[in-house]
Design a protein that fits this description.
mainly alpha, 70 residues
Length: 70
């Protein structure tokens, strides 16, 4: 659901759903990428940092992840 919400640009719902996936211990690379970028889209850069770093450590190929990390 979180990934679908992200694709529909419903970033608040995406954050809620993706955070649940992380808390349940089932996150994959796309979960961290989408969570981080949803936080960026909702102007929450501090919250975006941890999932951005996690996505980068999982060898993300998403250029936006590295752009946001600086």
């Amino acid at each position: 659901r979180g990934k679908a919400a992200f694709q529909m640009k419903d970033f608040a719902r995406a954050i809620t759903d993706l955070e649940k996936v992380v808390q349940q211990g089932q996150p994959d690379l796309a979960t961290f990428e989408n969570l981080a970028l949803a936080y960026v889209q909702t102007d929450k850069p501090k919250e975006a940092l941890a999932p951005l770093e996690r996505a980068a450590s999982m060898n993300s190929q998403n250029k936006e992840v590295f752009f946001q990390l600086g």
